[in-house]
Write the structure tokens for this entry.
Amino acid sequence: MSITYLEAIREAQARALREDPRVFIYGQDVGAFGGAFKATKNLANQFPGRVLDSPISEDAIVGLAVGAAIEGMRPIIEMQFADFSTVGFNQIVNQAATLFWRTNVSCPITVRLPFGGTSGGGPFHSQCLEAIYAHYPGLVVLTPATVEDAYSMLLEAVALDDPVVFCEHKFLYYHLKAEKLPEEALPIGKARIAREGRDLSIVTYSAMVHEAFAAAQELSAEGWEVEIVDLRSIKPLDTDTVMASVSRTGKLLCVGEAWPFGGVTAEIIARVTSEGYGLLDAAPQRLNAKDTPVPYHPNLWAAHRPTARSIATAARKLLRQ
Amino acid sequence: MLRPALEPGSADIVAESHLAAYRFMLRARLLDDKFAALYRAGKIHGGVFLGRGQEALSASLGITLHKTDVFAPLIRDAAGRLAFGEPVLDAVRTYLGSALGPMRGRDGNVHRGRPRDGYLPMISHLGAMISVVNGVLLARRFKQIAGTVGATCVGEGATSTGSFHEALNQAAVEKLPLVLVVANNQYAYSTPTSRQFVCEDLASKAVGYGVTAHSLDATDLTECLTVLGQAVEQARSGQGPQLVVAELLRLCGHGEHDDAGYIVPALKNSPLGRDCLKVAEEKLLALKWADPAQLAVWRSQIIQEIEEAVAQVQREPAPDPFIEDWRAFSSAHLSETHPD
């Protein structure tokens, strides 16, 4: 038996609904239809009255979740695409994110964002919005890269007292498989050494972990051993694990599928240079998507975001310094 | 959208509710006056936003709700807040930023509430609280708590927002017991209604959402009590969301920083420009539900209560940045430990 990243997300939601009567799911087409990606398939049947179709009203969807959380529920919100969460942005960043700080009442909502590029997605079905949400105090931002993390981190997100922006990568939905669901996991806020190496640290997250892996394989054949840090959680950010890795390798390449300006890769480099300048043997580098909207055609899309090949090229430059 | 027949219940009950609402109106007016004075004296950080002209509407909503209901007031709801049960101290502490207030100096002025008590603190983005009220109501449905009403108030300017549209439609789809009060005070900050909408009557919007509409003259306390009483009762008895459109004129600036020079004299001199507090006072006296001596006693009692609250709060500690818990996460274990 094998289970996909998408099935793990569905199973985590089923378990949350089963084990916690406070949990309900609200979003567009999540009911009988089972969601645009089928992440809630059969859940409306299994849990009658607890998986509700919403109108196409992202602002009101999140606002409702905040109100329900105040009243002690644990809503899971599905945004059909991360891109559409910008329509509900105000409620996420101003209502949910500030509630605890203002009132001492926590806001346990989980907002699932199917995010990231897939071939043919184009400008409005491909965006990576983790940095803009992480910018706001009060939001936990998660980016699972594995089937196991998709499952365990979603369960932990629902159990957490804070609002969570759960960035699940659409490219991984069907591609990624595991033999079974995990029984234990690293907690939220801890990064993971996904691959050990001595020559260079690649710090990345979500789908780019897998591109970095492919690049590392290629570089291994050339005699370089690359360490890969999978951040798992963008906020909070596990600076300690990143610094420990850089202290072993002396070189840092940050990779993100998101746009470069003010992003996660910039944040990592800022932290490592200011707190661990002496650990670096070369200027830290980053590789991001190009600073344009995400293109539609596969030729353009493949060149727009980092890939195993472009990561390997950037890594070689750094390794030869 | 028909104006309902007035005067439900016995004469005693009517008199009692008028007197109760009037006392909250007066308390709110005098509290607002005190905040305005403190603002002019430079004792308040940030803005001061008064409810002058909206007291009859706001107090009527507040006393019509049960204490177990949900209320998300907006900036001109001092009277409704008091009537819903907010202590004067909460208001004073929030305006003065006391560390002992419900917002602990982290937020100020009208941005106050106690969410656990169904009293929701507004954010500044107009229309944004409506769907939050919907969420509390849906949660109570999940928890099988029956008989709850959720009320919130917006101005006519908020009817132009997407949030208003989304949330009212959402409440209608879920058939939630929402009472959405639109206080059409003729200006959204400085923008007149002619630049806000072109429909003849905002209440006609209710048809498009499939919800019940009510209209009222908010300068008339009797009409406020009667119509809001009916709207709240209809929501409570399962008839779905109720849209209440109240007509009034804001008798002050948007905030105390604003001299409101844009308000046209014709409106001030029209029936809309009547002061609801004076209108109510005249009615209480005319019907002999109270006499001038009684009104004077109430006024002096309230002034004393407010002065005592302000004096107390001015002696209270201000928030201390060195002991402030600079933590936005509720989950302490998630706070990052690396240096800022």
Summary: Chain B touches chain A through 48 residues (CB under 8 Å). The radius of gyration of chain B is 20 Å. Chain B has a mean pLDDT of 95. Residues 138 and 174 of chain B are 8 Å apart (CA to CA).
